[in-house]
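Lab meeting prep.
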Amino acid sequence: MTVTLADRIAHTIRNDVQSMHAYAVQPSAGLIKLDAMENPFELPPELQRELGARLARVPINRYPGARIDELRGALAVFAELPAGCSLMLGNGSDELIDLLSVACTKPQATILAPLPGFVLYELSARLRGLRFVGVPLRADFELDEAAMLAAIERERPALTYLAYPNNPTANLWDDAVIARIVDAVGRQQGLVVIDEAYQPFSSRTWMQRMAAHEHVLVMRTLSKFGLAGVRLGYLCGREALVQEIDKVRPPYNVSSLNAEAALFALEHAYEFGRQAALLRDERARLQSAFAAMPGVTTFPSEANMILVRVPDAQRAFDGLKARGVLVKHIAPLHPLLAGCLRITVGTPQENDTLLDALRASL
């Protein structure tokens, strides 16, 4: 009997994996890329030269060594890590999400998160054999407190994710509601992960409040800081808890080159802070311009992206792309996102082009 590759796949690959869709990255060549919440600014030429010379001296013939610990120390200072807390590094926060799933895999364990939210919470849970429970947000994209508390009581989740601010809606949820959810999870002996991926653009953080809750972890990434290509995330929490999760981290998961680039960026944090301030100003300008467009609804943002609702999201998306601007068409992702596009804040020049293209595409 001849065995085909399709037979081998059917025999060896999990059925649920075969039925999944891979995480899609849109082709962007030749387009103004406003679809992935990246920092649009490159380093000034003098810093590029300095970084290049520094990376050239990294001993890439050796496994990562003491510089990884130096990076952990530098991040602790930069993030103002509270006393009694520790942090671990990940190859982006994507890896940290997966490591949390690995560490918390027990029979019938559940991961809970509001929806719409970051897709990797659910994807990681399912790939690691965990149950995922999504709780819909309210129509205004605020947390549905009653539904969240009921789900926590019913499901007793091992992990509850709260994105702060949320992706793709870009808003910061009510702190009093979050506090009650955190307390409810604590009573059920679960963990809460406050995902602060967009912290450089947000007016609030849980970093200091984390210290008062032994079951709360704060997760951040340097991607939105300006190092999306470096792939570096960090997870913070009580030292004893982080030490347990760190046991499932692969050795040498952060490369020497990535670590050196991150150390360099932290030493020049003033430049990235300047860029973030400009993007916050541009965010406000875009929101005002969107609000003045007939038929367009813009939602509050504390991230480097803006959620807008337009009369015909597919038509607007196609029109923007035809005019050289790539955004994210998210209307199909969840019923609450009907008619919505997610637009990354770009440079002033990119944003000018975006506004002209959107007006012409509506």
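Slide two material, second protein:
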Amino acid sequence: MRKLIVTLLLAALLVSMAGYASAASVTVHITGHCNVRYGPSLDDGIMGTASEGTTLKGTGNSSKDDRGVVWYQVNYHGEKGWVSSKYAYTTGSGGGGGGGGSSTRYVIGDTGKSNVHTGPGLSYKVIGVLRVDDSAKYLEETSVDNRGVVWYKISWKGQKAWVSSRYTRLGRKGGGGKVTGDTVVAEYGDTNVRTGPGLKYRSFDIMYEGDEADYLGKSSTDSRGVVWYKISWYDDVGWVSSKYTELY
């Protein structure tokens, strides 16, 4: 009997150690500048930030918030924190196999036809056209040309290419492959709600970090190359900068 108990204890210890090793081998890859929070939701406080291209050691734990967004638990400066799968994916044992479809962003044709170039500028060769409502996988890299216009790096017919942000926007694909973007969330700080898509327009309210608003399906790019989102704001309509917000 005693031998059986010892055997069971050893087996339990091995399982526990295997589980620990699995969790310890998870790596969380950050695909965009994001907040590290104390808990797995936008309601939880911010403990710091993680920059695009960095990696964090994952614990193997994950959780879904009330929007259905998956969050990964990470080790952050000696503490346990959480990052959204909208800006990260995992690899290694217990990982999410790239975070599933929720972490993939797409560049979507928005306000007109946009030429697809071999590089981030008008001087590069045109190899195609991204039409309104067409989409291409975003490769999580941007560049600014000599005019101050932001360009998105995309996957285009098996090769890497670039499109201007003047005629496109970032979004994600939901069920059935449809590109979605129904909600604008203030994720990078408080931001002014303006009467039009640019700093020259009057600010009439503030969208505080963590606030959400219904996206009205229209975006615009100002003279600096910054994208603005048109939103429903209480009983009014306004515009907010993508520098402080994210489209979901």
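Talking points for slide two:
Helices lie at 2-24.
The radius of gyration is 21 Å.
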